[in-house]
Design goal:
The chain is mainly β. Helix content is about 0%, strand content about 50%. It has strands at about 5, 10-15, 20-25, 35-40, 45-50, 60, 70-75, 80-85, 90-100, 110, 115-120. Strands 2, 4, 5, 6, 9, 10 and 11 form a seven-stranded mixed β-sheet that branches. It has a four-stranded antiparallel β-sheet with strand order 1-3-8-7, with no helix packed on it.
Length: about 120
């Protein structure tokens, strides 16, 4: 079993930045594709980004491309999401998740964190 704990959310003004972290335990971290998803009130949980186990390949949703950067430190069992140029449409609960598949589909992720709230004020 893999346990995931997100941190780093908060309230930020439009144009600002936040860095989310997700600490993993209970598994071989480097074997997993790590993804970030987000869910705004009343909406589905949407894919944001993923990174493969080695960190050598990343993929982003078009809505965050060029503004968000995913990275991982396998020595620390941690994945990060650097979010720049935030706008109110980025307001959501952000979740990290682990999968053994290279996928953007929420159903293919086996392990999930509890989420961290990101609120962007205009």
């Amino acid at each position: 079993q893999v346990q995931l704990v997100e941190s780093g959310g908060g309230l930020v003004q439009a144009g600002g930045s936040l860095r989310l972290s997700c600490a993993a335990s209970g598994g071989t971290f480097s074997r997993y594709v790590m993804g970030w998803f987000r869910q705004a009130p009343g909406k589905d949980r949407d894919f944001v980004s993923y990174i493969i186990g080695s960190g050598g390949y990343t993929h982003y949703d078009d809505s965050v491309k060029g503004r968000f950067t995913i990275s991982r430190d396998n020595a620390k069992n941690t994945v990060y999401l650097q979010m720049n140029s935030l706008n109110p449409e980025d307001t959501a609960v952000y979740y990290c998740a682990a999968s053994q598949m290279l996928t953007t589909y929420t159903g293919d992720y086996n392990y999930w964190g509890q989420g961290t709230q990101v609120t962007v004020s205009s």
